[in-house]
Every structure is written in C-alpha cells, then in structure tokens.
Amino acid sequence: MNSFEQSRKLAPRAKAAPWHVPVALLVAALLAGAPVYSETPTPVKAQVKVPTVTVAPVKMAEIIGQVFVSGTLVARDEILVYPQVSGFTIDSLTKRVGETVAAGDVLATLATRNLTVLVTQAQAEVTRVEASIRQAQSQINTAQAGLTQAEAQLARNAQLKNRGVGTQANLDDATAAAATARAAFSSATDGLALAQAQRDQVQAQLDLAMLNLDHAQITAPAAGIVSARNGQLGEIASSGGEPIYRIIADGAVDVELEIIESALGAVSVGDPVTLDIASVGTVTGSVLRISPTVDRVNRLAIVTVEVSSESQLRPGLFANGTIETARRTSLTVPTEAILNDSGDTYVLRVKEGVIERSPVTAGLIWEDYREIIDGLSENDMVIARAGAFFIDGDTVNTITEDQKTSSPAVTAGKDAGQ
Predict the structure, then answer these.
(1) d(Cα 329, Cα 348) in Å, to the nearest integer?
(2) Burial class for 321, CB neighbours closer than 10 Å (0-12, 13-18, 19+)
(3) Could you report the per-residue pLDDT of 15-58, keeping only the tens digit for each?
(4) Do the Cβ atoms of 280 and 303 come closer than 8 Å?
(5) Can you tell me whether residue 338 is helix, strand or coil?
(6) Would you say the C-alpha torsion 182, 188, 194, 199 has a positive or negative sign?
(7) Going by DSSP bridges, is the β-strand pair 224-229/100-101 parallel, antiparallel, or unpaired?
(8) Whole-structure pTM over 0.85, yes or no?
(9) What would be the CATH architecture of the domain defined by 54-60+329-412?
C-alpha cells in the first residue's frame, strides 16, 4: 500500500446529501408561485394613421369658354386711287397721309394743256361734220326734187304713148331720166347717213376728250382716311403700278386674327372679343366673319373682328386677346381634381371618409375650375388635389380650404397627403 492509498483511508468521507432534498425545494418553489421560466410578451398592435386630404364641393358656377388669338389690324375696305387718264404730268397733290377726305375731294391734278387742245380739236371736228350733214341734207332735197320731176315727166309720156300721140323715144328718155333721178336721190341719202355716222364718231371723240379733261382732277371716290400717298409732283401719271393714293374707306379698321384649326369649330360670327392693341390698350369687338379655308402650312385660319371705332386704330398694329365662345352656369370642380387614366376622365369622390372613383364628362376650363357635364351632383365632395396618391376604397380624413384657413393648428400639422 503506497502512501496515497493510506491517506485516502485515513481521511474522513464527506456525507452525501439525500436525493429528495432538491425535489422538495422545487415543489416548494412551485407552491409559492415563483415562475420557473419567463413567458414571451404579446406584441402591441400598431395603430394605422389615416391621411387627411383637402376636399372641395361640387358647386354651380359661371363658366366662360375662351380661345386665345393674336393678329394684325387691317383696313376693312381699302380704296386704291389711280389716274383715269395716263401720259400726263402730275401738277399737284393736295392731301397728305392721315388726313380725312370726303367723297369728291380733289386729291391731285394733272397738266391740262394737252387735254384742252384735244378737246378743242374734237369740237372743231364735230363742227365740220355737222356742216357735212347739212350739205348732205341739201343734196337729198335737190335729188328729191329732181326725182319728183322725172317721175312726173315719165307719167305724162306714158299717157301720151297710150293715147297714140306720144312716141316711144320720148317714153324711153323719160324712163332713163327717172332712173337717174332715183340714183341721185339714193346717193344723197347715203351721203347723209355717212355724215351722220361721222358726227357720232367725232362726238364720241369730243366726249372722251372732255372726260379726260375732267379726269385731270383726281378725286376721292369715297370718304375715308389717307393711308398712303405714292404719287410725286412732275411724275407721269399711269394707271399701272402703285396707286397715287390709298384710302381707308370710312376710316374703318378691323382685326385679322389667327386661330388654330382645332378651335375653329367653337367660334361663331357675333362672338364677343376682347383685345389688347399695342399703343392703344384694351378694346372690345365681335367676330365679323370667319375664313372658309385653313392654311395648309401653318394650320391656321383667319377670323376677322370688328372693333369699336377709335381714331388710334391704325392698320399694321399688333393685337392679342380672347374670343369668348361660351358663357353658362354649370357644375364645377377644381381643375386639379380632374384625373386621367388611359383616356378615362374621373375624380375621387369622398363619401363618409371612403374614396370612390367616379367617371365624369368634363367640359370647359375657366380660371381654376373645370366644368362637369355628367357624373357628379351638386355638393358632392371630391379630392381637390394629390388625387393620384389615392385609390378607390382608401379611407381618409377630410378638410376643406375654408377649414384650413380658419384653423392654424390644422394648417401647422397638415398631412403630406394634402
């Protein structure tokens, strides 16, 4: 036996604890209500925040349809004044640009010396031909007398021949004399007709010469305002080229406006127009006529507008404004409330806090509102803006613009969905 084994025998043994002691302690703990293990806590259900949106009521309001236009002022009727006789020098020009003229006012005069000579020559020719007519008439009278005498002599010789006391030779001579007298009378008659024709011709020449002399004074054919003076003193007047004067008839000025073809069908004759005209200001008028054609290049049509008469209106001025195509009272919603999806137009109506997608038929836009032709009723509430963030069936809290304005607390804490 070694030393280690001797020491184990000599050392006292530790006394083992009975088995039932730990069990007793465990039972005591259970009876005392102490938990043996820790239970997992039940999670708290998260609260869902309902967004607040701005809504607007569907309401009746006046809607005005407008087409935006621009264009230029033009003379309603422009009179081009040309000389009625060519080849004569312009002696005077009496009117200047901007002056008002009346019908018949002298605008210019041509040199009349040559025209006066032509009138004198024509008058002399008329006098000569009238003398020829008198001579031809005298010849007719003489021929008539000779014919009467020759026919009487022929009748006597025929009677004598029938009674047997006259000769055939005398009858033949009388017959020949009567034929000669008839020929002379016919020739005299033709001479008179020729002289009368010559008189008509020279009378026409005289009338033309006198008319040209009258046309040496160039007058205004109608009242208006001189818009251009192209004639020059000393210039040879011609009926070709530029007119001597341009006149705005009665001073009436219209506006020719360009309008896109897609809006052409909305415009009618008589529609009211409001225009801003450079250097003049705001003027009103109405549609006078609509062009029956559209330009093939720029796809624009011309609408002519009659504006209130004002002396400041001048052809060439620029104008822009609107044509009022409609005015009526209709159901309206804010323009931003109208949404589009694949060609469908709709709004998001809110009823008892729940969103409903409502198809609508939309009409005119006026300022910040859009006309509703069909799909909604007055006082329905629709999401005024940010509707694209919501879908059918969403739950929301609502607030109106008036409520937002009157409640600073709400305004300060408004939801991002607004």
Answers:
(1) 23
(2) buried
(3) 444 444 444 444 344 334 444 444 555 555 556 688 999 999 99
(4) no
(5) coil
(6) negative
(7) antiparallel
(8) no
(9) Beta Barrel (2.40)
DSSP 236: B
Structure tokens at 267: 């415009």
Q: How far apart are CA 107 and CA 210, in angstroms?
A: 19
Question: How far is residue 238's CA from residue 84's CA, in Å, rounded to a whole number?
Answer: 8
Chain-centroid distance, C-alpha 98: 27
**DSSP 8-state assignment for residue 144:** H
Length of the chain: 418
**Measured distance CA(403)–CA(159) in Å, rounded:** 138
Tokens found for residue 151: 């026919």
Paired strand residues for 388: none
Specify which residues 328 forms β-bridges with: 63
3-17, 205-219, 239-253, 357-371: lowest mean pLDDT where?
3-17
> Which tokens belong to 275?
């225009």
In 164-319, which residue ranges form alpha helices assigned H by DSSP?
Answer: 168-214
Q: What is the pLDDT of residues 162-185, one digit of tens each?
A: 877 777 887 777 788 888 888 888
Residue entry with tokens 């896109």? 260
- Domain spanning 68-72+251-327: which superfamily? Efflux pump adaptor protein, beta barrel domain (2.40.30.170)
